[in-house]
Amino acid sequence: MVWSQQITQLLKAYQIRFLSYVPDAIGEQILKHARQDDFFDLLPLAREEEGIGVVAGQYVGGSRGAMLMPTSGVGNAVNALASLAIPYEIPLPMFIGWRGGLGEFNSAQVPMGQALRPILDSLNIPHFMLTQPDDVNTVVDGALKLAFAHERPVAVIVSTQLAGWKDEK
């Protein structure tokens, strides 16, 4: 089973029905499996901070959601995370497709890629890097458990080492 299918199975096991996303090549690998399962409702977004509000509303309404976003989207979402999800203790699993690291061809991706973990650290958001297929079940299960048990945002960073490198065009 591929890593992205493992993630969708875990999302379903945790009753995370709603997946809000900003299009991203890495997130798309997860979404292609979710589209094949009627359990999931997918919501494309224009900006990442919209998704923070959507997932917060879903949680307050008794449902569970998750966000899928590119690295650069974390910069867009900082205010919504800091002023909504964190202070109001919203469990918010975030799956972040990491750009700007190993093998990156686009120099514009590197600064945010390098800033990603320090930004998450400054917001006190636990984050876990996925690099190997054998770690997917343990890391994602643990991250989801942490998010819902402690009612807080948690980030799973999906590396290009796991997901594959974006082709240079």
From TrEMBL:
SUPFAM superfamilies: Thiamin diphosphate-binding fold (THDP-binding) (SSF52518). It comes from the Bacteria. CDD domains: TPP_PYR_POX_like. One of its GO terms (molecular function) is carboxy-lyase activity. Keywords: Decarboxylase, Lyase. This is Thiamine pyrophosphate enzyme N-terminal TPP-binding domain-containing protein. It comes from Entotheonella factor.
